[in-house]
Sequence to fold (403 residues):
Amino acid sequence: MPTITSARVIVTCPGRNFITLKIETDQGVYGVGDATLNGRELAVASYLTDHVIPCLIGRDAHRIEDIWQYLYKGAYWRRGPVTMSAIAAVDMALWDIKGKLAGLPVYQLLGGASREGCMVYGHANGSDISETIERAQEYLEFGYKAVRLQSGVPGLKATYGVSGERFYYEPAKGNLPDETCWSTSKYLRSVPELFQKGRDALGWDLHLLHDVHHRCTPIEAARLGKDLEPYRLFWLEDATPAEDQAAFRLIRQHTTTPLAVGEIFNSIWDCKQLIEEQLIDYIRATVVHAGGITHLRRIAGLADLYQVRTGCHGATDLSPVSMAAALHFGISVPNFGIQEYMRHTPETDAVFPHAYSFQDGLMHPGDKPGLGVDIDEKLAAGYEYNRAYLPVNRLEDGTMFNW
Ligand code: EZ4
Ligand code: CO
Fold:
């Protein structure tokens, strides 16, 4: 049996913060897992170092399910993003170890490939509609089959999804949270035009997506979904905050625009009603924030019963370790839908050398044993942690709102 001999947390900041767990065994094989929780990174690092790692030493690294249950049930305090990201990191690292010991890429341990690759979507964003469309055209040239369109809203200084950086959208900044200003009525006027012009310029072969980022009420979201129906979106994401899962009933009753939700979910209980009542079409829970490959497979299994497909979160704050794990999961699971892929910066890619690759709009996890991703600890040590926050958002009259 491969015994866990040590585990430690590696904190690095190659342009943005990443928390990585490295688990070592007595067989000379180690595994890596991502534990990055954007804007709250050190809480997960402490949860791992102070509470989880002491429980791992001496355990059989092959017992992935038992260790998962031990950390979930054994904490007594179940769920929550900090706990579930920490469990996810352990889970990813153990799958990495199992794959390396078996001499197989993780997707082979999950049943093998169900498809040639995972369709991914990129982010096209611009300060106005024409700039967004130009960006989307670049993605078309790269071979992407799906693109998310976000555009600046006339009358608002800044909006979610739009930044100065062309390909590396990064909302987290230091030293205290940025404050942005929001108007739903201005936003709702601008989105249909974005997609009308988007379809005119980009045609109908490219899948188009849009992220509302939790900013509509259910009835506003219902209207937006209706207004966008002529443009045949692949999905409308996070139309309303989903703490209240039943709120999606109202949206669903009014529109045939497909709905996706769940990037901030951390367990199957967050989406049980959404899935069982078929209130959504895509579940966005991710490997890092929803308890690792082990738990995400359980969510996908439930979703498959109800014809809900996967559409995992894949922003730049999910490290290449998560990206690799997401691709092993995505290529193997029967009800894969799409995977978000915001490319990492060259600095990040250098710290995390990886086997996954992009071709013709699809990504493949590669065939290296394990997850096929590593951390260059020497390089990582050169980048010190840099506190950064996601922005907060207020309405025009100063009322605190959802970011
Ligand atoms: O705002 O990952 O669909 N993608 C998103 C992301 C999230 C960030 C938060 O850390 O909504 O851009
Ligand atoms: Co989103």
